[in-house]
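2024-03-11 09:14:02 DEBUG pipeline.ingest accepted 1 chain
2024-03-11 09:14:02 DEBUG pipeline.ingest length=646
2024-03-11 09:14:03 DEBUG pipeline.predict start
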Amino acid sequence: MSVDGWNTVLVLGGIRSGKSEFAESLVTDAPVVRYVATAPEGDPEDTEWATRLAAHRARRPGSWTTEETTEDPRRLADVLESAEPNEMLLVDDLGGWVTVLLDPDHQPADDVATIAELAEAIRGCAARVVLVSPEVGLSLVPTTPLGRAFTDALGAANRAVADACDAVVLVVAGQPVWLKSVAAATEQSVPAPVTAPTAAAAPTLASLADSEPTPEVQLPDVLTHTPPATPTAEPGNPWAAPTMALPMVSTGLVIQPGMELPMPDEYAGPQAIDRLATLDVPGAGLGVLDRVVGFAAATQGTSTPAAWGSVRVLLLHGDHAGGAAAGTVAGESARRAAQARAGQGALARLAAESGASLQVVDTPPSAPIEDQPALAPEQVESALRYGWRLAEQAADAGVQLLVLGACGAGTEAAAAAVLAATAGAEPPAVLGRVITDSGEIDDAAWMIRCAAVRDALHRTRRSSRGAKDILAELGGGDVAVATGVLLGATARRVPVLLDGPVGLAAGMVSRDLAGQARHWCLLADHGGHPAVRLAADVLGLTPLLDLRMDLGEGANALVALPLLRSVLALSAALPVHPSLAGTDDTDPAVDEPESTDPSYADPSYADPDLTEPDSTEPDFAEPEPAGPGPASTGADEQPASGWRAG
């Protein structure tokens, strides 16, 4: 269960909204769960109601205990007051509790006082409590006195309980929307990844609720240049627009399997490709690079995408201990990270040349995967949220494209282990050769890495293959943070340029958390790495180039970035082919007399497909002396600043 600081939470929802399933997901990992059933058994002949109750009972694990409060509605407050701190209570639901409260067998009774007692018991409860209640306030006012009495009492109960609880979530069509959260009011900065717990101080579920790091952490933002000005957000601009998922990130519970995050525009991409076929270009046009135009169009939500202006490179630095790091020089990755922070080295130089900002991010170090989990579960949660907020910070700063890179000892072996767990790959087939600083191939180190991955897979052969379990057991800090970045970027509709094993491994893990994430990723070059090739094939990402450079993760993407920008700028600026423009058949260069008068500026002289009728730029309408044929109208002599997006 995600730890976010709440002690009591109210889960609201309509009929068949999925509120009970969501509430059960909040307590799944708790060691001690007591299910408090409030609904009466009902009429024995009502088979549909009996089926509903049976479905609820079937979902409960055998380790849970069940307690009934249907005989006396006041007993629910007693159960809450007597609960132990190590318990987790799941009360399902308040609708059934109100039904019993209004039953004539329990009258006369002071409903207002009983509801107030329940709210007070929730405030003073020592255990963690999840309460489920139907939201009936959005429906029509019932036409019967009994129906009105029920909705009034349930509405009063929901208001009192919501006021008493730390957090409130509304489930609509299976999608949770957090309405109230203690974390949302206090968590304004990005928390630093927590350190691994020691055996002497093993955390309990109750203690973990208060273990979330709260002090502000200033992210190291290293700019190797002055970033270009970014346009302010305007209505209708899809870049970095918030989504419904964002309020949930402050609670930490949003990062869970099956999230529904935005998808790119399914129509803009094909429309952009169709538009390319109409442009005035010779030959076969852009070739395979037309995929860049389709990708940018889909992620920007327009058939005429613009070149990415503001780009940020996230360089994740985190080492893996044990055999995964065989063949690497101690301290080399830290030197590379420090070099990038200082604006030096290949990555920093390429970032400066591309006009991209460079941010170096330290991730939690990972333990030897052959002997123990790479990270503790709470570290995985923290790392995922940390990566999500890195993407949020970039979106808030107007970044239009993220480049994901990594530097760290053992990253390739960790990525190979993730691929083996998620795609069934054989470690030797996805582990690249180990190259020493002197350029020699170190086969002994390669075999040690293979053995480390093999032993890690053997150690975890009976473990769950869930996304968070893979990150904890095999992936480590850099892959976990990278996964959070992909999810956060997807939520904020920011495309990501992948480069290297860590980013692709994160893409594989993110499939189980939010399958939409891969559609916001672009792979410029596979770099000749076998792990990247396999992961790209599984994710459906076709590399655009085959440069086979080996300058470190992120460098290949930055080398390709100017080319990709040029393609987008060209596709936006080129005019429609004259044969498709639907213009008058009269050739202005033939019918209009030549003139040596420099003041001649008849707008009909210029090709209307290459100029805009409403342009106020004098140079745009002034022709060069024309020769025979439409190609010599002077349109090709227009300055670059005069082009408009087609």
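2024-03-11 09:14:41 DEBUG pipeline.report The chain has a mean pLDDT of 77.
2024-03-11 09:14:41 DEBUG pipeline.predict end
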